[in-house]
Amino acid sequence: MMEIEVNWKAVVSGIILTVILGPLLRLLIPSLMGVLSILLASVACGYIADKDYLNGAVNGVIMGAAVGIINILMVYIKTGIMNMPILSILIYALAGDMSLGFLGGSAGSILGSFRD
Question: Is the CB of residue 54 less than 8 Å from the CB of residue 4?
Fold first, then answer.
């Protein structure tokens, strides 16, 4: 049976990388900044997690969820409003962040398997 480990170093590194890539990509590709920053950071997260693709995917999902929750908190702090329409949009965005984390984390762990 496969054991899944959460590599907190990988998850935190992915979160930090997302925070760094966001403003940089906003200058280069504003329309894709949110998607690319999470996707690239989750690839790094999966690569750092250094196990099979499922483990990288789980670490990527955790990283994506953390980034999504941070985004929800930032929207609330900036607006002071959290009504149902806003929350439903943010929940969809959270699911998207987790999906990107899954894809990137899987890809990163597969990339990591090539270095061995």
Answer: yes
